[in-house]
Amino acid sequence: MSHIKSTLESSTFFKALKQNAENQSVLKEEVFSLLSPSLQKEVVAIYQRQKCCYIELSSSYVLVAVKHALNNLGRSYKVLVRRS
Fold first, then answer.
1. Where are the beta strands (DSSP E) in the chain?
2. pLDDT at site 24
3. Is residue 45 helix, strand or coil?
4. pLDDT tens per residue, range 8-61
5. What is the distance between the alpha carbons of residues 3 and 5, in angstroms, rounded to a whole number?
6. Burial label, 8 (beta-carbon count in 10 A; 0-12, 13-18, 19+)
């Protein structure tokens, strides 16, 4: 079992996955710190692609409030509404 563990620890693919997961959790914490609890409930997904933060919402009713709250994010972002 130790050879499997050492192989996984030395793999650059798994290191990149771990780093990506850490970055996503930091991003989620940053976004949620700017939103009220009622706005946090409307967020479906938060992810980053090519230096742009994407925030998906469950409804368009809170779109303006979320954009206003994210003015202090310090990153470029796009807010999307998920259609069901």
1. 43-49, 52-57, 77-81
2. 86
3. strand
4. 778 888 888 888 888 888 889 988 988 899 989 999 999 888 888 899 999 888
5. 5
6. exposed
The letter for the amino acid at 5 is K
Range 45-66 burial, b when 16+ CB lie within 10 A, else e:
ebebeeeebebebeeeebeeeb
Please, which residues have CB within 8 angstroms of residue 1's CB and are 6 or more apart in sequence? Answer: none
User: For residue 84, what pLDDT is reported?
Assistant: 63
If you ran DSSP here, which 8-state letter would residue 51 be given?
A: T
What is the pLDDT, as a whole number, of residue 27?
Answer: 86
Q: Is 74 left (phi over 0), alpha (psi -120 to 50) or beta?
A: left
Tokens of 6: 């050492």
Strands 77-81 and 52-57: parallel
